[in-house]
Amino acid sequence: MRFTSRLIAIVTGLFIAHLACAASPEPQRWVSAGGALTEWIVALGGESRLVGVDSTSQHPRSVKSLPGIGYQRQLSAEGILTLRPNVLIGTEEMGPPPVIQQLRTAGVQVEVLSASAELPALQASLERLGVLLGREGEARQLSDQFIKRLATEHQRVTQLKRAAPGVLLLVSHAGSAPMVAGAGTVGDWLITQAGGRNLATHTGYKVFSTEAMSGLNPEVLVVSDRAQNGVQPREALLRENPLLRATKALRDNRVVEIDPTLLVGGLGPRLPDAVRSLADAFYPGAAPGSARASNAR
Amino acid sequence: MLIGKDIGIVRDGKQVLDSIELTMAHGQMVGVLGPNGAGKSTLLAALCGELAPTRGQVFLDDIPLDQWRGPERARRLAVLPQSSTLSFAFKVEEVVAMGRLPHESGQQRDAEIIQHAFEAADAMHLLGRSYLTLSGGERQRVHLARALAQVWPGEEGQVLLLDEPTSALDPLHQHTTLLAVRAFADRGGAVMVILHDLNLAARYCDRLLLLSQGLAYVSGTPQQVLTPDALMSVFGLDVLVQPHPERGHPLVITR
Amino acid sequence: MRLDLAPKTLFITLGFACLLAIWLSLALGPVSLPMMDTLRAVLHLVGVPMAEDNLQQAELIVGQIRLPRTLLGLAVGAVLALSGVAMQGLFRNPLADPGLVGVSSGAALGAAVAIVAGASLGGLPEPFQPYLLSICAFAGGLGVTAIVYRLGRRDGHTSVSTMLLAGVAMTALAGSIIGLFAYLADDASLRTLTFWNLGTLNGASYARLWPLLLVCAAVILWLPRRAKALNALLLGESEARHLGIEVERLKRELILCIALGVGAAVAAAGLIGFIGLIVPHLVRLLTGPDHRIVLPASALAGASLLLFADIFARLVMAPAELPIGIVTVFIGAPFFLFLLVRGRA
Asked: Which of A33, A81, A159, C212 is the most buried (most CB within 10 A)?
């Protein structure tokens, strides 16, 4: 069954590629500005086309050896042109606008995809990527898989009919200055998808006092540390904010760590795994074979 | 000719000067004396237009001073302040050349005048040096040259006001400075000089004005002004006044 | 302590340095173009008929990317250096930096408002969108300078020492408000704000260039005419008045010139530091403090220095770019320390 669908996908792809060749050669040199986008491109098999990535593109490890074009909001037109790209693909966060315009004038095809943390936006982005790579079928597949896995997790946790645990997601640097994820962030999206209840009601990322965090008394604490230098995020956080020990989450030892690169640049392919780990932590002992350790790096 | 009529100045509610009359005629050197705080510098500020008098008026050539346009006034009236805060490494020639700013006499004439000014101020040996490398006294002489250059040659109608020009100078240069100023007056210019040294004032000035607490205590020739009674009253100083053995002007000797 | 370079020698050297900087700025970049192609592209752009084979890429890179960038660098470098001379004349202190009257912090505040609040306010209609940041920065710079100026005025007289203190206070106040905006900002706005604070000539386009060029031309034409008056002002305000100069008017005009010049430069290129402080100093070390020479020489030297810094900024980390403010600080701060140590500040 799977082989047949793959065959159909390949044939369809070749057919479209043939059509495309009749019109113009398929783009071969791609520059990607956006971590999640880069991951999707790689997932769709387009890694060989990538000739440059921005500073937020950290996964998979292999793309880190590609030439860097800097921060996505401060691109250099001439710098990108040295890579002789056919396509510059990025989100609406790319800039500055005059540089994007200069690249268009230079004949680079600039594709702007959405970076918002919403499923319809992700679907549209994947569809477009599929068209550009000539892998519409695979793109649709990935898109469906993504949604399906999320639905599965959602079903799993709702079936339990347990109260959603109160959760706070913290992003810190070597434990200090922890910022709490509020509405509209990918962090908030993750918590909701995994069946948790985000206790923070503000928008965006805000610094909370330890007192406020203890006051909210989360049952589960999700921590993410940008330092990434081998320091254990949980230990670092406790060292810098010892009062957190008073929270229920720490008393019950329900602390989950997640990779901070998941939280920027829109929805990426590693998110369903992260949702699964979070759901496991929110509802312990809920499903067999999911008793993973809390590290999901 | 610079005339101050009934000058009164109030500052911060205090009457710093009151009812001062001063006439600076051409060819004359007027010396202003008095203890610290008597109002000498304030008087100079009023006479050069820096301070607007609360009462009374200053006239330059019978026209009120505040009606003169800047450059025109500057061509007739030059001021040598007590000290300078110049902290940039100009050459001394450049500093003196600034005295010619209000004029449009052309480069050649300016160069001649600057040369004369240097000679008059006895600063020729300072040519080519940087201002910041000079001592306090040398700097004062450079500024004197600048002021002289501004109203060179000192003909009728040109005025020079000096605020304690000898304070940082050694005895020789105290005299050379006042001689240069005297020569300016002799050529026809009008001079007012604030001095602390009573004997220098007696020797070089034609007329003296003795201020005490903002009021004119006495004015007139050095003989008329420098009397033991006046000096005791104003300065609290017990003195003898005798004529200079060779020159005849009053010589004040503290007892 | 000065080297006493004759004016002629100085101007020939600086002129040559400036032309060299312009040429290198057009010829060097992450994309390597053959020198001949660059030359031909430049000639073609100014209208000299030229064989157009293979010239498209060169014309695009040189004409659309490097030339506007070079013009921006020339204008910003010249204006910042001239503003530095004006500041040092106004405060009669060779250590005065244009930022002292608050224009830089005011511009930074304006930019912070535009970056952080602009996103949430939905922004201006399309044609103005790219100008929003520049307009806010320019308005902020002028606004804070106006406040500082008003604080320094009393009875028709402007006290520069009061202005200095007011400038320090306003800079601190602006800094704390910027901090508040940084707190309210989301991640993306914060990065944008940080980058803007470091200054860049990236993204220069002819459309955004012309307001700055106008202001630059005005400053370059106006300041040298006040050279003699500025010389006299260095003697002291009283002395300058005795020499017949309208000192209050001159101070007003200088402040306006600095506010407009630095405001426009910062609006176009972000915060670029130390040019206004270092360049006039260098020129004075070479040739003395006479403004008739220092003003035009500083304009040339500032333009050249900024262009050389920009060439370095865009090559050192290609294809990414180093913000130029970092480069100027790396040149300027050690030089400043060296001056202090030498005791000749």
From this structure: A33
Domain that holds residue A235: 163-296
* Range of the structural domain that residue B191 is part of: 2-254
Cβ pairs A/C, distance under 8 A: 85
Residues 6+ apart with CB under 8 A from B213: B37, B38, B39
**Which residues on chain B are in Cβ contact (under 8 Å) with C242?**
48, 50, 74, 77-79
Residue B84: which of C235, C288, C290 has the nearest Cβ? C235
Task: Report yes or no: C242 and B79 within 8 Å, Cβ to Cβ.
Answer: yes
Residue of A nearest to C313 (CA): A76
Q: What is the pLDDT along chain B (255 residues), one digit of tens a residue?
A: 888 888 999 888 888 898 899 998 889 999 999 998 888 999 999 999 888 899 999 999 889 998 999 899 999 999 999 888 898 999 999 999 999 999 988 889 999 999 999 999 889 999 999 999 999 889 999 999 999 999 988 777 899 999 999 888 889 889 989 999 999 999 889 999 999 999 999 999 999 999 998 899 999 999 999 999 999 999 998 999 999 999 989 999 998
Domain C7-342 CATH superfamily: ABC transporter involved in vitamin B12 uptake, BtuC (1.10.3470.10)
Residues A185 and A282 grouped into a single domain: yes
Cα(C277)–Cα(C145) distance, rounded to whole angstroms?
A: 18
Same domain for A124 and A27: yes
By the 8 A CB rule, do C243 and B99 touch? yes
Q: Let me know if chains C and B touch, i.e. at least 3 Cβ pairs under 8 angstroms.
A: yes
**Domains: count for chain A:** 2
Residues 255-314 of chain C whose Cβ lies under 8 A from any Cβ of chain A: 314
Residue B71 near chain C (CB below 8 Å): yes
Q: Is C94 on the interface with B (CB under 8 A)?
A: yes
**Whether residues A129 and A206 fall in one domain:** no
Structurally, chain B folds into a number of domains equal to: 1
| ipTM of predicted complex | 0.90
